[in-house]
């Protein structure tokens, strides 16, 4: 479980490190801030396409080998981005990352229940998903801190080195993991026939859109609207990520009682936080508290969604994970793209208000659909 959590951490680190240095890339490669946000949009979109293709194409391949191969793709993405001569090559590197993201999250979450059993499955999944929050702890502040210290290119290069170490570690400790069965596109289609699965996909997709429209542009918000120094913003990123780990690891007790209500409550609460941030941006202490609360609440959301999806589709866990990650990554792409459009056309404050309203809307949908829990 911990080796898989490390794999999750490096993937999320690579996905979101650019959030910390979007203004630097925008300046160095002569693109707008909204265009620089494509570094988050493109992996999400390519992951959405890749998830079902990887899980079907992998057939009965040993999942250990598949996980390692996806780690190598993360390495290549970072290495190419580090030496990219222009923004187009950076975008290509991020496509590689998207394939790795889609394949990893299609395969790995179901392994918590497979390897730990149904009784410990939610806890095992929370350990894996804690890697997601850990990646946020590393990725957001690393992008901010190391982007300032050594530049964004060397930051990508350092991430490549970390990817090498994690791949070597996984080769050393992961056992052979046989495929649960050969997935086909027909299996993927069956997921949509489960009513509660459809509810999870819609509610989770809307919440994730709101989350990433805001989180993609949290660095310029803190620097330009909250007028915080770069060092203090880095500390807030660390606090946000640590709070996310707390939310994820503390979440199983709440999630196991009622998964959909746990999701809806967390989504409504972090939506309120996002909507309030622009109005309270002038109070650094309040902003700090709200950022920490945002981290805890968001940490609950993927755990509630992922475990609910797996328990709703016990016969086809990898197909369910593939569809889930496709929808969530599409939502990440849409969210970051929407954020980019809004930040260029209406400003940073509007991004956070719209994001908050979107998250609250997802909670209302979940509450109205609670009869399907």
UniProtKB/TrEMBL annotation:
Q: Which InterPro entries match?
A: MFS, MFS_dom, MFS_Efflux_Transporters, MFS_trans_sf
Q: List, alphabetically, the PROSITE patterns matched.
A: MFS
| Residue intervals of the Major facilitator superfamily (MFS) profile domain | 1-373
Q: Which UniProt keywords apply?
A: Cell membrane, Membrane, Transmembrane, Transmembrane helix
The principal location of this protein is membrane
How does the record say this protein sits in the membrane?
Answer: Multi-pass membrane protein
What is one Pfam family matched by this protein? Answer: MFS_1
| Cited CDD domains | MFS_NepI_like
Q: Which residues cross the membrane?
A: 38-58, 65-85, 91-112, 124-142, 154-179, 200-223, 229-249, 261-280, 286-307, 319-342, 348-369
Alphabetical list of Gene3D superfamilies matching this protein = MFS general substrate transporter like domains
One GO term describing the cellular component: plasma membrane
Q: Name one GO molecular function term.
A: transmembrane transporter activity
Q: Does the keyword rRNA-binding apply?
A: no
Question: Taxonomically, which superkingdom?
Answer: Bacteria
List locations, semicolon-separated. Answer: Cell membrane
Kindly provide the name given to this protein in its UniProt entry: MFS transporter
Q: Give the species this sequence originates from.
A: Planotetraspora silvatica
């Amino acid at each position: 479980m911990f080796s898989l959590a490390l794999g999750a951490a490096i993937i999320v680190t690579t996905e979101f490190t650019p959030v910390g240095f979007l203004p630097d890339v925008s300046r160095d490669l002569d693109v707008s801030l909204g265009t620089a946000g494509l570094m988050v949009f493109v992996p999400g979109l390519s992951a959405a396409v890749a998830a079902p293709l990887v899980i079907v194409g992998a057939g009965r391949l040993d999942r250990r080998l598949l996980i390692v191969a996806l780690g190598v793709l993360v390495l290549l993405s970072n290495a190419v981005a580090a030496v990219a001569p222009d923004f187009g090559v950076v975008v290509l590197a991020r496509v590689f990352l998207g394939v790795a993201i889609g394949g990893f999250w299609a395969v790995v979450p179901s392994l918590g229940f497979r390897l730990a059993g149904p009784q410990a499955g939610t806890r095992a999944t929370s350990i894996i998903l804690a890697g997601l929050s850990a990646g946020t702890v590393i990725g957001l502040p690393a992008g901010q801190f190391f982007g300032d210290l050594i530049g964004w290119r060397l930051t990508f290069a350092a991430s490549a080195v970390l990817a090498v170490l994690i791949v070597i570690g996984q080769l050393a400790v992961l056992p052979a993991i046989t495929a649960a069965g050969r997935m086909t596109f027909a299996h993927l289609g069956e997921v949509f026939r489960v009513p509660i699965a459809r509810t999870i996909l819609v509610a989770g997709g809307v919440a994730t859109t709101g989350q990433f429209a805001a989180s993609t542009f949290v660095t310029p918000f803190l620097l330009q609207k909250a007028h915080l120094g770069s060092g203090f913003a880095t500390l807030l990123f660390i606090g946000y990520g640590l709070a996310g780990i707390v939310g994820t690891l503390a979440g199983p007790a709440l999630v196991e009682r009622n998964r959909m209500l746990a999701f809806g409550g967390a989504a409504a609460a972090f939506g309120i936080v996002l909507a309030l941030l622009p109005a309270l941006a002038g109070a650094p202490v309040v902003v700090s508290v709200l950022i920490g609360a945002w981290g805890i609440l968001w940490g609950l959301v993927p755990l509630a969604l992922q475990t609910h999806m797996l328990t709703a589709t016990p016969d086809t866990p990898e197909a369910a994970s593939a569809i889930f990650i496709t929808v969530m990554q599409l939502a990440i792409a849409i969210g970051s793209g929407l954020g980019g459009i809004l930040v260029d056309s209406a400003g940073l404050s509007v991004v956070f208000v719209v994001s908050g309203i979107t998250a609250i809307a997802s909670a209302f949908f979940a509450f109205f659909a609670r009869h399907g829990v």
